[in-house]
Structure prediction request, 108 residues.
Amino acid sequence: MDDNKRRALSAALGQIEKQFGKGAVMRMGDRPSDAADVISTGSLGLDLALGIGGLPKGRVVEIYGPESSGKTTLTLQVIANCQRNGGTAAFVDAEHALDPTYAEKLGV
Prediction:
């Protein structure tokens, strides 16, 4: 990277940290990454595709997609896995479509 680009990048990163606080920008390799605690989705293929083995614990995760694509089923499976392992999860039903009987059948 040439000197002008390096200075421009440094200035931009400085502005971001000034506005959003120290730690708002993390450069890869600056610190060792800790393995995230995860909850399995219940699908080995999806867990592998996510790259960390599931969904991260302690984070807000949005499941997004078209109608009837399996969002609710996936979410309820993850919540059931979380509960089986002693955890707590929340379900925000933006579509107003949660069926408590179905949730119970999936283990929630």
User: Anything to note?
Assistant: The first helix runs from residue 3 to 20. The chain has two domains: 1-32, 34-108. The longest strand covers residues 38-39.
